[in-house]
């Protein structure tokens, strides 16, 4: 091996070693950094609207970042912590004594009795099937334990949130610098890079802005109506509905329908009707508004089954943040390949035209 080859190998190994060490420093915050980068793509156009009014980029970035913190993150964090605290208090005093547990237990008992009677008519033996009421008692205690562990992890969550907003400010303020760095690597052509950036911006915007805002709106409708229908667990209902709203196929309907059945079992006919109306209104928000936004953005709706499977896989792979990463990665994967193939075909055609003209 000559000296030139040894130099190249040593150079590659040294650079790789440095970058590996550099990357390892950020591994504890990988989830927060990834979310921040995608959120920066989603908010990039809003930053352009602010800077177009003569505000310097660094101040516009600060305004946008603080806006996300105080008007989106802070209320959601407050609701989550409030819900977790309520669950912990329920666990301390005993879930069985809470109104929501007793209503759920009565609902499950009535449904099980009806199902057992139906199974007996067709000759189906249900004795070996676990009783839903027993499962409710078993897993209600685990919910309290999870709430306690979540409260114990608040310092770690706060650190990740701090890293997220620092990274969000950096990615928004230094977007052009980051883009120029990657363009100098000559991995992609200018056209391919612009196509990929456009796809990531659209996918991120649909998830971080559209889906989350629709989820918050649906959760507000269901939790608000539920509160006036006699359910005092506003914060818990809000969180459960918001999470369900991010799941394709299901949406916010399960929470509203469950509360409707619970109110009906309690003899609260007015509350049951109110929850049915809330279910229809909340569902129409997702079924009417979201398709309009997708069509205006020029994006095709992903098949619900594919969306659901990819979301389940993302949650298993990335944890809770998979709720946000799953839709973005799926949309990106389905849009990226056609864009690159189309770009390559256009470049080949332009090359052939230039060859003919020459």
Automatic annotation (TrEMBL):
InterPro entries recorded: AI-2E-like
Compartments, record wording: Membrane
Keywords for the protein's UniProt record, in alphabetical order: Membrane, Transmembrane, Transmembrane helix
The keyword Oxidoreductase is assigned to this record: no
Major subcellular site: membrane
TM spans (from-to): 12-29, 59-81, 150-172, 206-228, 234-251, 302-325
Domain of life: Bacteria
Keyword match Transmembrane: yes
Family label: Belongs to the autoinducer-2 exporter (AI-2E) (TC 2.A.86) family.
Protein name (Swiss-Prot/TrEMBL): Permease
Source organism (scientific name): Pseudobdellovibrio exovorus JSS
